[in-house]
Amino acid sequence: MNLREKYQKEVVAKMKAEFGYANDLAVPRLVKVSLNVGIGKSKDDPKVAETAENTLKRITGQQPVYTLSKKAISAFKIRENMKVGLKVTLRGKRMWDFLEKLINIALPRVRDFRGLETKSADQSGNLTIGFKEHLVFPEIRSDEVEKLHGLEVSIATTANNQKEALSLFKYLGFPFKNS
């Protein structure tokens, strides 16, 4: 059973029982997953941006979009409209496939992983996970890597608060630290 089927068959029923929702559509659901890579530190080296772009493309199967700086900051040597990062937004089937890979393959491969912090879910019901190295994803082979970079995964939900979101994520199988 894949993650989407698990959500429809098991998670909706558990959430309705726990929070007393009137119908299935009132149950919080996942909206999108955003992956971000910041390339601001190594903005002078075009190879880093190219590596980050190829990494995101391989991990998600989608073409990333460059994020541009909104204003100039002289202390960071950034000019307005300068490329400072890359992002990809996943929805639908690609989102569910990515989350399955994240839960079952990528998170267990993180060195010294003891579970996600419950405080990584915000008050709006969204979860953000940061990776120091992009090597945890199965599409990236360690012998091909020239430069390491981190990335951030943000999962947006329709949950009204942190408690609902944490229940949703736990029922989906996200490994949280025992609190």
Automatic annotation (TrEMBL):
One GO-annotated biological process of the protein: translation
Keywords (A to Z) from UniProt: Ribonucleoprotein, Ribosomal protein, RNA-binding, rRNA-binding, tRNA-binding
GO terms, molecular function: rRNA binding; structural constituent of ribosome; tRNA binding
Highest taxon, organism lineage: Bacteria
Keyword RNA-binding recorded: yes
Domain Large ribosomal subunit protein uL5 N-terminal: 24-79
Domain Large ribosomal subunit protein uL5 C-terminal residue range list: 83-176
Gene Ontology cellular component list: ribonucleoprotein complex; ribosome
Subunit-structure text: Part of the 50S ribosomal subunit; part of the 5S rRNA/L5/L18/L25 subcomplex. Contacts the 5S rRNA and the P site tRNA. Forms a bridge to the 30S subunit in the 70S ribosome.
Function: This is 1 of the proteins that bind and probably mediate the attachment of the 5S RNA into the large ribosomal subunit, where it forms part of the central protuberance. In the 70S ribosome it contacts protein S13 of the 30S subunit (bridge B1b), connecting the 2 subunits; this bridge is implicated in subunit movement. Contacts the P site tRNA; the 5S rRNA and some of its associated proteins might help stabilize positioning of ribosome-bound tRNAs.
Similarity comment text for this entry: Belongs to the universal ribosomal protein uL5 family.
Record-given protein name: Large ribosomal subunit protein uL5
